[in-house]
Amino acid sequence: MGNRPSPNENYHLNAQIPQFVPFLAMNNIFTSMMQTCKVRFKGEMMRKFWKMYAFGWLIYGFVLGLAIQLEDLIQGNFNLTSVFSVMRSLIPAALLLTLVWPLTLAMGRRKVTAVNRALIHFAGAFLVASLQVVLMIIFHKGSSSITYIWLMWPFFYNLMMYFVIVAIFNGVLNNREAREKEVAFAHAQNMLVAAELNALRNKLNPHFLFNTLHSIIALVRKDAKAAESALFRFSDMLRYILDTEKSGSDRVLIDDEWQFVRDYLDLEGLRLGARLQVHWDLDPEADGISLPALSIQPLVENSIKHAFNPRSQPGNLTIRSHVNHAEKCLEVRISDDGPGTDRDSIKNATGMGIQTVEKRLQLAYGDKAKFHISTEPGKGFAVMFSIPTTN
Question: Residue 307 gets which letter from DSSP?
Fold first, then answer.
């Protein structure tokens, strides 16, 4: 097999490698390669990638430099120049293996099959390993210690390094593609949620308009002057709905939602008179919190429809809000002392107000939104929901 050179001699190529290619210039070389290779990564992310690539080679060279003088280290001797020599000797391989990056990108863009990719990489690995062996022969030209049998171990070593770099580059690309898919999926989900929220709101708007106009028509028959006042209230409410649609956002401040509910109750109060007793208990700490538009009025309208319209005696409607700091959520509760109902009636109800509000809150907040109905025949009806105070 011939005489094997010492480990230091294996890597001591700095005398043969031109001194104008110092290892500290690797980062600049990789950055310039990034600018010439048309890759999918852009800007700062690409620069960081090549910096990490160069840094990885430097760390590998440093560790390798320590490993080849392990016996000297045990004896307390450390040769920093030898470490630098090893690090410089890795520059040709590090630069040569950067070509794997555009090759991997090209195969990905052209949808090369797995079998063909494997064949191409095997050919590439053979070429890179052969070039490295040729470089060693050139740099050690005339050395009697270099034999063709001895050159087999750097050949297989460079084959291994090639496939390690292939694995790293493919891992980076797969991670990037996975992140892009996650972002695209999240964007699609947000667009879907926004579309569903708009669709649900568009269902609520005509629902509200029909019921309110029906109340105003009923009021015209009893009191024309009150009906005129109700129309002014109604115009303010329409302006609120139109403003929320023009803004392009489904969210409104709870203060504006409360004003919308007050206008609605004032309008209904003109028709119901003393029969409608409203009790407000609003937490001032809730001011400034946003929520989907028309999240509260349909719940209030449900009480008006089922607790006050069917009976002639006075009733109580209680509207509460509370900021739960422990749970970091806003709690809203709408309750009445009407006839109530049973669970089966709720499930079989044809109305869309409560069900639509519940679905909108689930779409907007997911599992963070809570929605609960409490009722029994003869014991009134209460709806409570909670939403996070921060998105």
Answer: I
pLDDT confidence of residue 188: 64
First-to-final CA distance of the chain: 71
For residue 382, what are its two tokens? 């209460």
If one counts every other C-beta atom within 10 angstroms of the C-beta of residue 234, the result is 19
For helices 152-222 and 100-109, angle between their N-to-C axes, nearest 10 degrees: 50
Strands lying side by side in the sheet with 381-388: 276-281, 315-324, 329-336, 381-388, 370-375
Q: What is the mean pLDDT of residues 274-283?
A: 93
- Classify the C-alpha dihedral 187-189-193-199 as positive or negative: positive
Does the predicted TM-score (pTM) go above 0.70? no
CA 24 from centre of chain: 38
Choose among 204, 172, 190, 199: nearest CA to 300: 204
Summary count for the chain: helices (H), strands (E): 14, 7
Show the tokens assigned to 10: 């294996």
Distance CA 216, CA 227 (A): 6
Is residue 200 over pLDDT 70? no
Which segment of 147-161, 243-257, 357-371 scores lowest on mean pLDDT?
147-161
Q: Which amino acid is at 264?
A: Y
pLDDT of 13 reads: 36
For the chain, state the CA radius of gyration.
37
Left if phi > 0, otherwise alpha if psi is -120 to 50, otherwise beta: which for 254?
alpha
pLDDT in tens, 128-172: 888 877 877 776 665 556 666 667 777 888 888 888 888 888 888
Residue 151 is given by DSSP the state T
- Write the DSSP string, 22-68: -GGGHHHHHHHHHHHS--S--HHHHHHHHHHHHHHHHHHHHHHHHHT
The full DSSP string for 317-365 is EEEEEEEETTTTEEEEEEEE-S----HHHHHT----HHHHHHHHHHHHH
User: Torsions phi, psi of 381, nearest 5?
Assistant: -140, 135
Q: How far is CA 133 from CA 17, 86, 145, 157, in A?
A: 14, 16, 14, 10
Rounded distance between C-alpha atoms, residue 323 and residue 251, angstroms = 18
Q: Note the pLDDT tens digit of each residue in 285-300.
A: 998 899 988 889 889 9
Is residue 34 pLDDT above 60, yes or no? no
